[in-house]
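Now for our target.
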Amino acid sequence: MVTMKKKSVAAAVSLVVMMISMVEVLGAVAGGVRPSKITRRQVPAVYVFGDSTLDVGNNNYLPGKDVPRANKPYYGIDFPGSKPTGRFSNGYNAADYVAKNLGFDKSPPAYLALKAHNYLVPAALVIGVSYASAGAGILDSTNAGGNIPLSKQVVYFNSTRAEMVAKAGSGVVRDLMAKSFFLVGVGSNDMFAFAAAQQKQNRSATPSEVKAFYAILVSNYSAAITELYGMGARKFGIINVGPVGCVPRVRVANATGACNDGMNQLAAGFDAALRTLLAGLAARLPGLAYSIADSYALTQATFADPLAAGYANADSACCGGGRLGSEGACERGAAVCGDRDRYVFWDSVHPSQQSNKLGAKAYYDGPGQFTSPINFKQLANYKNA
């Protein structure tokens, strides 16, 4: 028995070494990791699910003219090599900085990029995979046809896991899943879609309609977390929905440039329901641990005193055109601000690289009011039963 166990361990170690060398070859194509940094990782891998705030290039591989993509200038202007990668940022995004804080070089590569280059299993076993897709929602109906919705991201993870088991064995994968970090950030697009539908009808949603909206969102979110748990996931870092009524694209619709309080209330209500959901799941799913990153509270604190956070502008897009920089697209020929680290927003919807950096740091080990019930650092070091 001892001999067999030693052989099993040796085989696993050999497999990991092989995977590291293979992923190193992938390198910059899909966001490889520097092997020198592997020793300081707090988790063995990171798996990412969500929308454009976390997407690192999946949408680059989706067909269709209406698919939102950030594969053109000036996206990526501050990314190494000043190249657009599919990140909706002037540089790194939130997933990158969460991964950096956990000891990685950047976010794990995009699922569709890995599939295209036949490196899915090596990356999944050694770094992790990002399934996040710009435009995605908790509901399949949100921006349907132009993204990978949350439910399908989970399906893709399930197929990835099956390939991992076939390659490394169920024991290795089970241990990997239990120790890895599952980052989830989704819901903003559902808020935008719901508000747009009401605006199209020139009316406000009734309390019963909002209640029904929350109910289906929570049901779908619960299904996704429960399915991932069933596949072995135990550590969930959840980024809630921020004050969507304060992005430049929404502000510009107001003559004074003020936030849309109704949309912010919609997001805040969902965030409250999300807290209740996760507390309930943790109570009935043994070994499940989670940390909610309060994007809503952090962003509101930033708006209250931008200068204290190092910002000179908290209501306009750095890249775009027209009023609040949000009446023109962020593309070649657009106006781009000089000091990008002094802007909260990069384009009319998405945070700047600096916002992503400061946000991820707050979620990792920052002030206690921005994470609950534990922070991302504590979650990463959480010991499962």
In short: The first helix runs from residue 2 to 26. The two ends are 25 Å apart (CA to CA). The chain is about 45% helix and 10% strand.
